[in-house]
Each structure stands twice: as structure tokens, then as C-alpha cells.
Amino acid sequence: MNKKKEDLQKNTIDNTKKAKMTTNQGLPVSEDEFSLKAGERGPTLMEDFHFREKMTHFDHERIPERVVHARGFGVHGEFQVYESLEKYTKADFLNDPSKKTPVFVRFSTVAGNRGSMDIPRDVRGFSTKFYTDEGNYDLVGNNMPVFFIQDAIKFPDLVHAVKPEPHNEIPQAASAHDTFWDFVSQNTESAHMIMWLMSDRAIPRSLRMMEGFGVHTFRLVNKEGKSHFVKFHWKPKLGAHQVVWDEAQLINGKNIDFHRQDLWENIDKGNAVEFELGLQVIPEEDEFNMDFDVLDPTKIWPEEDVPVQLVGKMTLNQNVDDYFAETEQVAFHPGHVVPGIDFSNDPLLQGRLFSYTDTQLIRLGGPNFHQIPINRPVCPFANNQREGYNQMNITKGQTSYHKNALNDNQPEPASPEEGGFEHYNEKVEGRKVRARSESFKDHFSQAKLFLNSMQDHEKQHMFDALSFELGKCKNMSVRNNVLREVLNKIDREMTEYVADKVGAELPEAVEESTYSKSSPALSMTNHPTSLETRTLGVMITPDVAEATLKETKDKFEKHGMDVSFISDKIHSIGDVMVEETFDTVHSVLFDAVVVLKGKESLQPEAIENLAIAFKHKKAIGYGVDEGDISDVLPFSLDAKGVTDIEKNVDQFLEDVKAHRVWNR
Ligand code: HDD
């Protein structure tokens, strides 16, 4: 058990043990079915304190959901650095390779409310709380390395634009509407982020299969006080992968909890979920050596120019015991830093440093939210802050001020040598202005860089995503404005395609971005792939032999795949359980599908499932005990990625491993 899980035990109540029911005051309750009445058919009595307490608690069970990132899913784990990073930072948890630092990670969608679906087209939040021996360090990032805006003062505008429209609260968890795209056309700094949002990055296959990014340029500071600029990355061991948009929309209907269930079940089964921490580091002296401003959060540092050094590994390995107490009450803040990690002057980051504590005050009901078990550090903490709503601590002593003589000046600030945090001693000079630096003005080069880096199928997905989103905008001027002010300045081919699809005016050709660089690391097709934990839906006719089922299961499970049998009803065939039916699951919920046919003919549902799997470019395997299958399948047996698993299982496995048969 890691140090944080141990700490949480102090507040953990085991409700699975035999116990007598009591009120919150500890009074044993003798009856919990009936309220206290004056006569069996009479009015309920005010005196019924048990009813009042139970009802009052229920009436107050909800807290405000997060204003963004409301839908989230949290897991515990730990982090270990591979080698000391003392040349860059004095952060203790990054200096000692023998140290396992407990972490809590919350993944989230951004726009949807807490009850919305898991796979809208959206950015994913990727927040990590490291419970270090020097206090909590929060890396509050996303699965995309850039952001929509360059200055935090615009955050409320961005969020108002993307959230459901205020007059009718439509649409839920979607950017495909007028106000969002109107914002984009009027605020072209979002152009680069829009490319990411329209890409497959916005519809991850799994929370275990997406990258994470700290987004901003931060600072690492070593013992000598030398500073380096740094960008943080999380690299998933399983590689980053996506679903396709049509599939995402169907999944949202078939299983709204697709991502959280995938994560919960994999952790429950003991499948470690691993991410490596990556750093891109540049010395402070190189601040002005890039063709963009390192303080601009709409820019990446291409990995080919500044390689990502993999410096440590995070393993997520324990689910929460209580969703509300842990995942809902966890409070992240980019300003929670430890000695050796510091900020840059990125104006987006600077504004975030205000917003996160502020929002917890209303969400968690006052200034003592750091005492909520999931938020409290695992190292000792002491100061003179007292009282306030939900104060849980009883602090002994007469004094609650600094300096004091009555208590020997305790608690006493620590010097930097003793571990006290010291802000980086940056020299800053300037006049007070409300302005944006000229060096932030290029909105289109990296949008083009992203597009240049996509493979053909990825580009096509982006063009189609744009056509979907703009097609959903009711206001023709919004479509025209986006095409003219944004897309046309990035890429003419994209503009022509989308204009045609959404019936908008094709703007006059202007000088589009001439940026010709590409960054292969941006294409998810270049990511590592693996068979581990891939899900396989095996559709069977009811008469398939037990031996065939066992053999099929073994064939795939030995590669770490997860096999489910699907038929008309839940039943067992010999020792093998058919646990799913065409009512409970669908091919959209699996990475790949196999059909096993006995003498009986294939069910119509199986044929429909196969047609959709084919459309979604999934590997399809088949095995036939008897008769012919080719005349019922909605595609040719010679099509790419359709394989006889009895004759050529290796080919099928290769297709599954490649994630999708993109060239089908
Ligand atoms: Fe934010 C939540 C990530 C810009 C204000 N943000 C929140 C969460 C993530 C991010 C992952 C969810 C935390 C959790 O799981 O509880 N936010 C980002 C990233 C940004 C960003 C990567 C840009 C690089 N955010 C941003 C700005 C502001 C905020 C510019 C305001 C100035 N974000 C908030 C917030 C939230 C939040 C309103 C809502 C709930 C919360 O903080 O705890 O304060």
C-alpha cells in the first residue's frame, strides 16, 4: 500500500462489514422503512428526527460540478524517476530513483457535464497529483499540447462559447455549434488547437492510450539556482490510439461509460496502466532561439527539434474506494509546486494560478478543502491558518500569527537550504500594459505543421470532422467566417473540401501558411502498438462446438487479449460461458471482431455488427465449422483485414496490433 493509500485509511469506513445501523449521532436505529406517523394513515410527525436527518442529508448530497472538466475519472498509482534529474531540478521526487511517489490521476472531458458521455469530440484533461515528501505537486495537463487561447482573461469567453448555448442549453458536450465556431473565427489564435480538436486525438480509444502534456513552458531549477525551460509529456506505454468518429457516436449510445469502464476493469484485472514522463528541456539562454515564443501556449516544441527525454514511469494500479470522496473532491492546481519546479511568464499559466483555488472555494465549500483526505499532503504541514468552514483539524497552542515570541516563533519558515520554496530569481522589467506580445501573432504556422504531419487517412478524418462541425452550425455566416478567417489561411485543399461539403462560400485564395516543416511524432499512426488488453468480440452461431470456443479463447488470450463471446442469449456451451448477447454489446465496443459459424446460418445482428466493424476499419477474423460464409458477409473475404483465423491467425493478429486497417 503506498503512502497516500495508507493516509486515506485514517478516514476509510468499511461498509461491507456487519454493523448495526445508527443515526449520524451514533444512536442505533430500530426502523428504517417507515416514517413516524400519528396513526398508520395519519400525518408524519415533526418529531421524527431519523427521517429529518436522512432526508436533510439526501437533500444536500450534491455539490456544484466543475465549471469545466466536470466529467472525470480518477485512479491511484505511483511514480518513480529512472535516474536523478539533479542537473535540472532539485525536486526531491525527481532526484531519488529509489523513491516511489504516490500519485492520483484524474482524466476528464472538458465541455460536457458530469453525466455526459465519455467519447464526445473534446480535449481530455490529464491531471496528476504527486504526493511528494516536499508537498503536493500537481501537473494539470491535457491530452493535447497546445491551448485555444494565449491569455487567461479570455478563458471565460472560450468556455462560454463551447458550452451549451445559454438560451436553450443545446448541445451537450459538443463543439459542433454556432457559438463555438463563431468564437474560433473571431479569435484566430485558436487555429492550431482547432487542428488538434478536429484530429483523432479528440476521440481516444482509451484513457490508457493517449498522451498527456503539461502544455505551458515551465521551469526546472537546480540546487545551484540554474533554470531550464521545460515542457512535460506523458507517453502511454500502449501508444496513443483513436476510434473513428462514426464509431464514437455509436459508442456514446451503446455505452456512455466506455472510457471509465475500460480503465476501471483493466485496473481491477491487475493490468498495470503505465505512462512514461517525458521532458523537453532547453537552457534559459535559448529562450529566443525558436521561430516562435516559448511563452506562447499555442505552440509546441517539435520533438524532432527538442527531443523528449523519458525520465520516469507512472503506474496506475488502484481504483478508488469512493468516487465522490476521492475523484469528485480532488482539487488540482497548477500552482501546487515543489522546490525545483517553477513557472514561466506564459500569460495563460499566470491566470490559471489564480483560478484553481478560487473555483474550489465554491465547489468544495470554503478554504479548508486541502484538509479533505484526497487533497492533504503526505508530509507534515503547519501554518497559522485557522477556522473557516469545514475545519477538521484541532490545532493546539495559544498563537496563530507570525512572528511571535509566546510560542518561540513556531511554526517557522524554512530557509531554502532547509527545503523552503524559493521563487526563481528572474529579473522582470516593464511598463503596465494590456497588450499581447508581437511574438504571439503567428496563428497559422503550427496549424499547418500539424496538418503537414498527418498521414492521408488522418488528414481525411480532420477534413470530415470539420465538415461535421461546420455542417452543424445553423448560421451560414459562421461557416463562411471560419472558412475565410481560419481554414483558408492554413490550407487551400482543406478549405475547398469543407466549403463544398457544408455549402459555404469558397473564399478567395489568400496566401495560406507556407510553413513546410512536418513533425512525424504528431501522427498517431507512428505510435507503438501492442496486442495487450485489446478487446475481441467473438460472435458465434449457437451451434459452435465447445472445443472451437476454447481453442479460439486460448489463441488470443495468450497474447494478452480480452475475449468475449457473443450470441443470441447468455448461456454456457460446455465449460465456456457466452456472457454477451447482441442486445448487451455491439462491434463498436471491441477493437476487433471474429465470427465463428457452425451449421446454422449467421444471425442478422451478427451481419450488421460485421458491416459496422468493416466500416470502422477493424480487423475481422472468421472461422467456419461447416458451410460457406462468403455469401452472407457484407464484404468480400478478399478485402484487406479480413482473415481466416484457422488458416492465418498471424495475419489477423498483425492487423489487430496495427490498431486499424487504415488502407482498407
Ligand atoms: Fe483548466 C480544471 C487543464 C486552462 C481554469 N483544467 C481543469 C482540469 C484540467 C485543466 C485537466 C481538471 C482538473 C481536475 O481533474 O479536477 N486548463 C487545463 C489546461 C489548460 C487550462 C491544460 C491550458 C493549458 N483552466 C485554464 C485556464 C483557466 C482554467 C486559462 C482559467 C484562467 N480549469 C480551470 C478551473 C477548473 C479547471 C475553472 C475547473 C475545475 C477546477 O479548475 O478545479 O479553475
Automatic annotation (TrEMBL):
Reaction(s) this enzyme catalyzes, per UniProt: 2 H2O2 = O2 + 2 H2O
PROSITE patterns documented for this protein: CATALASE_1, CATALASE_2, CATALASE_3
Region listing for Disordered, in residue ranges: 1-24
Keyword Heme: yes
EC category name: oxidoreductase
Domain of life, per lineage: Bacteria
Catalase core domain location: 22-410
EC number assigned by the record: 1.11.1.6
InterPro entries: Catalase, Catalase_AS, Catalase_clade2, Catalase_clade2_helical, Catalase_core, Catalase_haem_BS, Catalase_immune_responsive, Catalase_large_C
Classification via Gene3D superfamilies: 1.20.1370.20, 3.40.50.880, Catalase core domain
A GO molecular-function descriptor: catalase activity
Cofactor(s) essential for the protein: heme
Keyword Disulfide bond: no
Keywords, in A-Z order: Heme, Hydrogen peroxide, Iron, Metal-binding, Oxidoreductase, Peroxidase
Cited function: Decomposes hydrogen peroxide into water and oxygen; serves to protect cells from the toxic effects of hydrogen peroxide.
Family membership: Belongs to the catalase family. HPII subfamily.
Protein name as annotated: Catalase
